[in-house]
TrEMBL record:
Gene for this chain: LOC104792807
Listed Low complexity bias regions: 403-414
One Pfam assignment: MTPAP-like_central
Polar residues composition bias: residue spans: 437-459
Residue ranges of domain Poly(A) RNA polymerase mitochondrial-like central palm in the record: 10-145
Lineage, top ranks: Eukaryota, Viridiplantae, Streptophyta, Embryophyta, Tracheophyta
Name of the protein described by the UniProt record: Protein HESO1-like
Domain of life: Eukaryota
Organism, scientific name: Camelina sativa (False flax)
Region named Disordered: 389-494
Gene3D superfamilies, A to Z: 1.10.1410.10, Beta Polymerase, domain 2
Length: 494
């Protein structure tokens, strides 16, 4: 159990920096809309839909997160198998169209991957995108992660912190033989399943079989069936009577996460991580995992018996365990805020945090009260703070926060509407959403230094070199209820 008084407030400071703002959402929506236009210009892709998935849909992306995109060929009909050769051909046509368009750069065709991918970067927004064809499995897994994040908010916070920590220590790159982000999310799920008392159930209690196996027949029917079963099981778990609640703080859960996997290199020789059953499983007795051998086995609960950590090499597993051990010891000691930031974040996040702490001190020195930090202001903003913001950043007061705009469903260029879960609909992203202009004519460039925000007000967070968003904030609008409940939207921080 963590008793360090600096840990919890420092984790909140980190989260305020790395969590996306409305501008970050709008930036990615703009990229999706631009990509949709290119796809529609390719003759063999006419009628295909452009669907985001991954961390953007699961609401587990940081401010500098990439976009995963699936170009779906048969989104409104039966689920058909698209062969690898056909996917390679279609991505080749799209690659030529993107080159001709001239608004994309760093185009790379990963043609021989297990799932062929086209990697690109949007020229204006500087957002990296991985494009695949008919990636229904990726879409489904993203939705499951979103549903799981709705069970307990600590899950999302832990995933964001763990991903930033892994990037800072160079162990979040599957191409280099370490974790991919999906496997890190599964480790967090497993940790919350094995806490005492458990925070998340075994995922077989959420969906009783490999969900990817049920992606067959008419797509809409299959997706709605999976969503209904999952919704009912989540509601049953959340309303469970007689079970004791785990009230561990975020810092306590993070410290125990690093401690739990400090000897992962030793455990992995005999045991595999199984979020489906919510326990360590013996590899030698699990016939579905054999005869393949891996350095680390983290079973994909939604596509069994696939190994989500198959990219982790033996040499890197020892390095990963060492990073877990060092981090665990550091956080268990009486470390101060600076040392916590140093062990959990990369250099560009550290610069933003240290700058925030410095400005925070300056504001207190000037007699400004009730200000936690420039990323999470108490509300309402006082007049002095508003004047300081305008003078320092040459812009009017930050836009209202949280935004109240829904994504209309009746636009013919919407992404395909997905089945709802517990009264919420999946993201419906429109072209008009990306064409909103800032009310401030002088606010055409992102800020370089820091951000400000509250549950009512939010500015932009300055990004490190090469991570400029180039998108201004959207105008406030109104939430439009859908026929099946409230429109799905990201969870904005209060």
């Amino acid at each position: 159990m963590s008793r360090n008084p600096f840990l919890d407030p420092t984790l909140q400071e980190i989260l305020q920096v790395i969590k996306p703002t409305r501008a970050d959402w709008d930036t990615r929506i703009g990229v999706i809309d631009q990509l949709r236009s290119v796809v529609q210009s390719v003759e063999c892709l006419r009628g295909a839909t452009v669907q985001p998935f991954g961390s953007f849909v699961s609401n587990l992306f940081t401010r500098w997160g990439d976009l995963d995109i699936s170009v779906d060929l048969f989104s409104g009909s039966s689920i058909l198998f698209t062969g690898k050769k056909q996917k390679q051909t279609l991505l080749g046509h799209l690659l030529r169209a993107l080159r001709a368009n001239g608004l994309w750069y760093k185009l790379q065709f990963v043609i021989h991957a297990r799932v062929p991918i086209l990697k690109i970067v949007s020229g204006h927004q500087r957002i990296s995108c991985d494009i695949s064809i008919d990636n229904l499995e990726g879409l489904l897994k993203s939705r499951f992660l979103f549903w799981i994040s709705e069970i307990d908010g600590r899950f999302r916070d832990l995933v964001l912190l763990v991903k930033e920590w892994a990037k800072a220590h160079n162990i979040n790159d599957s191409k280099s033989g370490t974790f991919n982000s999906y496997s890190l999310s599964l480790l967090v799920i497993f940790h919350l399943q094995t806490c005492v008392p458990a925070i998340l159930p075994p995922l077989r209690d959420i969906y009783p079989k490999s969900a990817v196996d049920d992606l067959k027949g008419v797509r809409k029917t299959a997706e709605e069936s999976i969503a209904q079963v999952t919704a009912a099981n989540i509601a049953r778990f959340k309303s469970g009577t007689g079970k004791s609640a785990n009230r561990s703080s975020l810092s306590e859960l993070l410290v125990s996460f690093f401690a739990k996997f400090s000897d992962i290199n030793l455990k992995a020789q005999e045991l595999g991580v199984c979020p489906f059953t919510g326990r360590w499983e013996n590899i030698s007795t699990n016939t579905t995992w054999l005869p393949k051998t891996y350095s680390l086995f983290v079973e994909d609960p939604f596509e069994q018996p696939q190994n989500a950590a198959r990219s982790v090499s033996r040499r890197n597993l020892d390095k990963i365990a060492q990073v877990f051990q060092i981090t665990s010891r550091s956080l268990a000691s009486d470390c101060n805020s600076n040392s916590i930031i140093a062990v959990l974040t990369g250099q560009h996040i550290q610069q933003l945090l240290y700058r925030t702490i410095s400005l925070h001190s300056q504001y207190h020195a000037n007699g400004t009260h009730n200000v936690r930090n420039l990323h999470g202001q108490t509300r309402p903003w006082n007049q002095q703070m508003q004047q300081n913001w305008s003078q320092n950043y040459n812009t009017p007061n930050p836009p209202y926060w949280p935004p109240q705009q829904s994504w209309p469903q009746n636009n013919p260029r919407n992404l395909q509407r997905q089945p709802s879960l517990q009264g919420q609909a999946w993201p419906v992203i429109t072209q008009t959403q990306t064409q909103q202009k800032s009310q401030n004519k002088n606010g055409n460039r992102p800020f370089k230094n820091t951000s400000a925000g509250s549950s009512q007000n939010q500015g932009h967070i300055g990004k490190p070199s090469g991570h400029m968003s180039g998108v201004n904030s959207a105008r406030p609008a109104t939430i439009i209820p859908s026929q099946r409940g409230q429109m799905w939207r990201p969870r904005y921080e209060h």
